[in-house]
Here is the input.
Amino acid sequence: MLVEKVEPNESVLVNVLSACAHLGAMEQGKWIEGYVTKKNVGVTVRLGTALVDMYSKCGCVERALEVFNEMKEKNVRAWSTMIGGLAINGHGEDALCLFSQMEMHGVRPNNVMFVGVLNACSHSRLVDEGSIYFDSMTKDSWECPIGRASRKQLLELEPDHSGRYVLLSNIDAAEGKWGDVAVLRREMKERGVSKMPGCSFIDLRGTIHEFIAGDNSHQQSQEIYAKLEDISKELKLEGHTPNTSAVLLDMDEEEKQTALYHHSEKLAIAFGLINSDPGVTIRITKNLRVCEDCHAAAKMISRIYKCKIVVRDRIRFHHFEDGSCSCMDFW
Ligand code: ZN
Ligand code: ZN
Here is the structure.
């Protein structure tokens, strides 16, 4: 479009930013922000919100807050995006603080916001705060049979997403509703939804590289596997024992360990370490939840290699630094 010299309007910019947010492509997103500044495009509440969303979903909550604070006009969607962004990045208390500020500004929260606020509490283990907010929501008779409403929305939004069915059937199973579990399984089968393979993306200087578990299609594949060998030796020296409990396949212990070492997020981390300068933040997006072994490994890698690793998974953000994670091992 730019080559054809067509000037993008607000809708195009918002959609491109949303694509960047989805992929975790922060370098491209930054480029769009630069374009907006250079071309003197007015930052409307819609465009500002898209920038806040992009930076939050790329794990750069500091820049998201700056953009949010610079926005002249803020509607409930803008507040809700910023609160949700703080929540998924593990800044639960800041999210709640912003929620109070919003109420002081006279903006009335909507249902999406409630989910954001409860998420903030859950991601930061603020159980007491969570129940106080929940009480106030129900007391003010705001619409809360939240579980059922979100359930319908979840399936309508992404009917082919296996994670949604797994999540819902886990909720039903936890409540002992085995009949509902069976209905969901049947529905999943009828729609032809199968479990997705784990897939990780990494943004390196504006190019997105994609890895699936056991992948050897990347041109640097040999180097990546060699690096993984080094990493696994370092981790063992530091006392890391691979947690193979998540590997359900019928394999012997050594094969299970190899399978774990070839998880997509480990491939992406190895690729990131090979190709970035020391001290650079490695940003990865994963389509599924990070497994326990990769989580433990990433914590150690951040200490051994003195690097920051930001992983966005299906559930939340993990900021790994100096041997620990922002989620405090709760995800
Ligand atoms: Zn893993
Ligand atoms: Zn974590």
The first helix runs from residue 10 to 23. Residues 263, 265, 291, 293-294 surround zinc ion (ligand 1) (CB under 6 Å).
